[in-house]
Amino acid sequence: MSDVVTVRIQDQIALVEINNPPVNATGIAVRLGLLEAVKQAESANAKAAIIYCAGKTFVAGGDISEFGKPPQEPHLPDVYQTIEDSSVPWIAATHGTTLGGGFELAMACDFRLGQQGTRYALPEVNLGLIPGAGGSQRLPRLIGIEAAVELATTGQMIDAQKLYDLGGLDLVFDGDPVEAGIAFAANLPTALSPLSQRTPAKVDSAYFETKRAQIIKKAKGQSSPLDNLQAIEWAATMPFSAGQPKERELHLALRDSAQSKALRHAFFSERAVGKPKAIEGGTPLEVNKIVVVGGGLMGAGIAFAALNAGYQVTLIERDQEAADAGKERIEGLIAGGIKRGKISDAKAASLRSSLIASDDYASSANADLAIEAVFEDLGVKQQVFQSLAAHMREDAILATNTSYIDPTQIFEGISNPSRFIGLHFFSPAHIMKLLEIVKLPSTSTDVLATGFVLGKKLRKVGVLSGICDGFIGNRILSAYRRQADYLLMDGCTPTQIDSAMRAFGMPMGPYELQDLTGLQISWANRKRQAPTRAKDERYVRIGDLLCEAERFGQRSQKGWYAYIDGDRKPHEDQYVTDVILSEAKTAGVERQEFTDQMIVDRLMAVMINEGALIVEEGVAERDLDVDLVKIHGYGFPRWRGGPMHYGDEVGIHNVKSSMEDVIAQSPNSWTLSERLK
Ligand code: COA
Which atom of ligand 1 is nearest to the CA of 22? Predict the structure, then answer.
């Protein structure tokens, strides 16, 4: 008898329970248990077998942690085929999240019942895979080719009602899955032929070609959406007996692919990121009421995210006019949500009633947490915290959203340093997933743990960072930009660098991105860093010269590129080329050719090296923290797994060799990490 799959025969019905926490994944023990269950149900001559799961979900997939190892018998597709071929009618009584291998299990059964609200998906695409146990072959036979393509190529979840409407469920029920299964078995309808023996309805002959072109455009280098389309095309064009082995073969091959490894790394990193060592033993404090100081773009975004997460929010500005403007901004975000159908009228009313905008710090008195999001100026920020500390409880948490200023300085002179923390949001704060949770030397474990709970409630990926210039994300960005500028001086153009990095998978290259966000920010940073910059570090002035010529990017119609009225498309600009050439000439640089590969290798090497330094200094606890910062805050392609994972994938020796090229190109300008040494 299996530990994780148990069978009870009750009134000639086999009740088959899977109990394999946390998510009832189909690891080896479940597969063995299911085969045994089929035998038991058959030898008991059961009228029907009901398969259901203990805990909060039906099977949520294959066991991803087994994917790195050679597959062990019995294989999942064979187990499911045994269920489909069984002489006993099988009923899947699903609840929770019925994903991947779970959805495939339900499709191998004769009948599918879904608890109201259950969600279904084939999320393999998000792990760089295609289904491996018949999912891509049975789903089109269940709900039609087009609906199957939508699900398999996006990993999108649909709820029980939607699946029922698509013809994928026999019943949507309220209440207990076992009871629903027993009631259904009492009046068992005649089963249709098993899915593997059905033929999916034909689609238009041009369908797959058109879809393929659409997917290539959207996938930005990720190959699994196309692989899933391919698998469904097999279902559309060949019998199950031919399509299923092809699906399995591709699934197994993809498990070893770099993209799947990277996506699995991202998946497990997202589960580990919220559990850094630094919060061990911490008890999160209760937070109900939040004060946000600053009603600009950032403050309004933070306030809106907090309102959406169910917090009471007080927005404080320096005068009533600014407070009203902040409130207006938040109102705009609420209106946008209503327009896109994301916020109901009732929800909007509750958000509005949870918001107060004021110019009086006394209104912060009973808040549990204050987040400062004002102008990036030490004096202004210090003033804000003095005003807050004068009114708030001694134990209320004080958080700064600074991007660059050392938080220790910001909080100087304020009592109870254990309550200080940095909460670094990314703009627009209600959309961007990343939240750097900054630990000061004085931050208590409880306060830090509270930061992580808050991040989760705000639906952010909270990453722990220590203090350094730019924290994890902007520090790596600054190294990346510096190296890009060296390449610019030594032979490249902005277009060449941007297009090489886009081909690598970045949504934008470094120069088009600066044009979008504005050149002033990095200009100000370079000025700020000037006094502490090592004397012999190579310094490229091109960006400064563009700013001095008032070329600040898209908003001023020119920056690294020129923009034509009302158009966001960058055009190469002779002015910029002239500045580059003249700077190179003045510096006595002999410009050389760089291939796209050389550009990528060098830019990636500095990112990886900087990430390694950040971990070595203890600013980040783990490589995975660095990876998630770049994926969720800077558009680093998820299917590359983040810079540190990418470094492991290409091999540390290759990264080292690129870093040596970087150092030879600009001596005295880089610190080599211990890891690369
Ligand atoms: N295989 C192995 N472990 C899995 C898993 C899977 N398919 N799905 C989830 N887990 C683990 C997680 O790693 C986590 O482990 P931890 O507690 O040690 O960190 C635990 O189960 C809980 O998962 P978590 O995501 O934190 O819980 P949740 O309730 O927020 O979400 C799911 C549950 C099922 C929606 C989510 O985990 C999920 O999407 N899983 C992947 C499903 C999938 O891709 N299936 C197809 C595989 S081919």
Answer: 21
